[in-house]
Amino acid sequence: MRMRRPTRGVAAALVVAGPKGVYSCGSFAAAAAKQASCQLTPAQLNSVSDVVLTNAGDLWIGSSEGLFYVAKGSSNVSLVSAVDAPVLAVAFDEDAQTPVASGVNLWRRLADGVSWYMVETPGIVDDPPSGLEFALDNTLWITNDVCVNQHFLQNFTFHRLGGYEGLPTSNLTSIAVASSGAIWIGSLQGAMRYAQGAWKYFYGSRWLPTTQAAPPGNSVASVTVIDVDGQETGIVATDGGLSIIRYQSWTLESKAAYLQSVVYPLHTRYGLICEADMSKFGDVRTAGQYSADNDGLWTAVYVASQSFRYAVTKDPAVKQLAWQAFEAMEFLNNVTGIDGLMARSVLKKTDPPPTDGKWYNSTVFPEWIWKGDTSSDEVVGHMFAYPLIHDLVAETPEERGRAARLINNTLTYIVNNGYYLIDADGNHTTWGVW
User: Fold this and answer.
1) Model confidence at 43, in pLDDT bands (50, 70, 90)?
2) What are the pLDDT digits (tens) for 224-266?
3) Residue 117 pLDDT more than 90?
4) Across 23-37, 100-114, 139-153, which has the greatest mean pLDDT?
5) Which residues are within 8 A (CB) of 180 and not within 5 positions of it... i.e. 6 or more apart?
6) Average pLDDT over residues 314-339
7) Separation between Cα atoms, residue 330 and residue 399, nearest integer Å
8) What is the largest CA-CA distance in the chain?
9) So what's the pLDDT on residue 334?
10) What are phi and psi of 327, to 5 degrees?
């Protein structure tokens, strides 16, 4: 299957070539694909490999029977006799108004609109092409199983982009060019984008319709790119479905706001910033929070972020978020009943019982249990957050005193115990060793 948009900057249409013919989609937003007005049947074309819709509305179709042309509004399918071999990929140069087709070799129509010339590419291009596309500078990009080749038509030279040049993977299947000039490439192991000398790789469930690190879902049959509301949008067709990857410009503030919306309520439990699992893959509505070793550390990092945020914005709502998380860290200290010893995590006795780690009944809050064997990285997290709360968030002597007390208790406890963190059982914790 091959999916293409008009060759230069028109977002309102897509064409799709498949085993049963060629189809057009007049409106991407409506996604109401209909069979093209020219009745292109499998019997005429045999196996279709590629299709290009020009800005003028003409179709160029590559198939096992050769190269075909259909003028806009016509139902006549014309075979280009000069291309006397199966065609694997097609492209169209809008500036020169010339098509290019490739099988084992490369064909290009001359400016007279009639004559064709052939370039023998074996030995120059690594493998038979899987895709052709003109970049905005009119360089012809050629994908194949091994690498990408750039063909500079002005001087008939080729340049190779492979693994040494940063190509993320091989087994390339298709190529498209964005109006920004970015190059999008599909492969059997995901999709990629090349712009300004840098590669971006899209693989796995973060980007593609898959639940695992293998097919189905990661093998890309075709990739194209359009503009939607001024945003570069990659359309990636895989063996597991369709993926839409949209490039959006975010300010740091808007990105932070999005991440903040993910934290609450998905990653909070008793005020702590905690881990969460989804019972159904990818469905955040099924997320469930649980106790883990690093509840204190993750909460400390969050406290730090909100402290810096409050220092800049002075937003009372931000102070409330920072202070709420700080109080959860304070509770990790208070629940142990030992000044200077913080718990890894806490549970209420009514919660499902823990299945791992070393747990103690709180002697201060009888309805709670706390997780011991606190590590040095937990301590470091706490000691990172407390001074920030003290210096950037606390505004009264009482608030600053609460942060200062935790700093003093932690350092005093470690120093007085010979630079060990002593657990409630009288032994130093596994990693609480300085």
Assistant:
1) low
2) 998 888 899 999 999 999 999 999 889 998 999 999 998 888 8
3) no
4) 139-153
5) 195, 232
6) 97
7) 12
8) 92
9) 98
10) -65, -30
CA 386 to chain centre: 34
Instruction: Give the separation between CA 101 and CA 119, rounded to whole angstroms.
Output: 11
Report pLDDT for 141. 94
Q: What angle do CA 360, 362, 365 make, to 5 degrees?
A: 160
Between the CA of residue 288 and those of 150, 282, 340, what are the distances in Å? 49, 13, 31
Three-state secondary-structure class, residue 152: strand
Q: What is the 3-state secondary structure (H, E, C) of 17-79?
A: EECCEEEEECCCCCCCCEECCCCCCHHHHCCEEEEEECCCCCEEEEECCEEEEECCCCCCCEE
Cβ-based neighbours of 426, under 8 Å, separated by 6 or more: none
Higher pLDDT, 158 or 26: 158
> Which pLDDT belongs to residue 26?
58
Collapse the DSSP code of 325 into the 3-class scheme (helix H, G, I; strand E, B; otherwise coil) and give the result: helix
Distance CA 371, CA 344 (A): 5
Judge whether 68 and 79 are in contact, CB under 8 Å.
yes
* Count of other CB atoms within 10 angstroms of residue 64: 14
Q: Are 175 and 133 in contact (CB under 8 A)?
A: yes
Distance CA 75, CA 68 (A): 12
What's the pLDDT at 40? 54
Closest CA to 360 of 329, 338, 327: 338
Task: Give per-residue burial for 135-164: e unless 16+ CB within 10 Å, then b.
Answer: eeeebbbbbbebbbbbbebeeeeeebbeee
- Structural contact between residues 387 and 394, judged by C-beta atoms closer than 8 angstroms: no
Which two three-digit tokens encode residue 430? 């596994």
Cβ–Cβ under 8 Å, residues 223 and 175: yes
Closest Cα to residue 97, out of 38, 55, 143? 55
Mean pLDDT of 167-180: 94
- pLDDT-based confidence at 99, cuts 50/70/90? confident
Q: Are the C-beta atoms of 301 and 308 separated by less than 8 Å? A: no
For tokens 């063909």, name the residue: 151
Q: Is 99 helix (H, G, I), strand (E, B) or coil?
A: strand
CB atoms within 10 A of CB 259: 10
Strands, E, within 358-410: which ranges?
A: 359-361, 368-371
Instruction: Please give the model's pTM, rounded to 2 decimal places.
Output: 0.77
